[in-house]
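Lab meeting, item 3. Inverse folding demo.
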């Protein structure tokens, strides 16, 4: 059996209980060494075999899984955050299905959640924004034209931008081109929930300069939108004493 496991955003204790239990039982662990906190490997048993997929191709990863399966061993494929976001798991699952190797997926806490906790912010604020767009700049992996940064920026929603820290000048240009004002609140969250986590509040216009000042070149999320400022919102109707809900009677008119 192969278990594809979300490692969480970084802190070892932010892996799920299920994910931790799978790591403890694994005979083979293949982990994304460029992104997953190696402290998570402390949960493994002594005789467990460990492979760093940062140094491997897809074919090599699948070969390790297939060999483990032939020997009746249990494999954990450990991905950063939640594997459904930029985890490249579909291609692995397709190869496992071709070979008849059973697998499942254990979700994890995504780094976009870790970034919000680092900033003590709520992404969805009444009368500010009720939507979150998770995307990335086009690089070696292209992005469909209909999903360009500028096209998403036109919505004015909260944006969480992955895998783009090395292109912040271009990112600012695309965000402004799409409709964000240059002084729109933004933030850079470096290694959310890790011991060396760093947060920088800035604006859309100053993203590049802020990252250079702090010497941040990779492993960071970019958050953009008025929700980053955490002000100007309306109180939630759910907890307003005027409004009735299924569970309590409000003081206002029905």
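The presenter then showed the designed sequence:
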């Amino acid at each position: 059996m192969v278990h594809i496991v979300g490692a969480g955003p970084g802190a070892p204790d932010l892996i799920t209980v299920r994910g931790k239990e799978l790591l403890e039982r694994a005979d083979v662990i293949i982990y994304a060494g460029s992104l997953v906190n190696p402290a998570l490997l402390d949960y493994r048993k002594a005789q467990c075999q460990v492979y760093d997929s940062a140094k491997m191709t897809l074919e090599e990863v699948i070969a390790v899984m297939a060999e483990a399966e032939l020997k009746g061993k249990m494999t954990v494929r450990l991905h950063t955050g939640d594997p459904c976001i930029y985890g490249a798991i579909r291609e692995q699952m397709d190869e496992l299905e071709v070979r008849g190797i059973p697998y499942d997926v254990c979700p994890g806490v995504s780094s976009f959640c870790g970034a919000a906790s680092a900033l003590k912010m709520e992404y969805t604020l009444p009368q500010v924004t009720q939507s979150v767009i998770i995307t990335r700049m086009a690089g070696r992996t292209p992005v469909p034209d209909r999903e360009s940064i500028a096209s998403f920026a036109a919505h004015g929603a909260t944006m969480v931008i992955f895998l783009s820290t090395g292109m912040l000048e271009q990112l600012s240009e695309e965000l402004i081109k799409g409709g964000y004002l240059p002084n729109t609140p933004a933030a850079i969250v470096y290694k959310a929930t890790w011991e060396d986590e760093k947060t920088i509040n800035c604006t859309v216009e100053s993203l590049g300069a802020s990252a250079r000042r702090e010497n941040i070149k990779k492993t960071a999320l970019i958050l953009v939108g008025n929700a980053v400022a955490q002000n100007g919102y309306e109180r939630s109707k759910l907890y307003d004493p005027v409004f009735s809900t299924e569970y309590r009677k409000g003081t206002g008119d029905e």
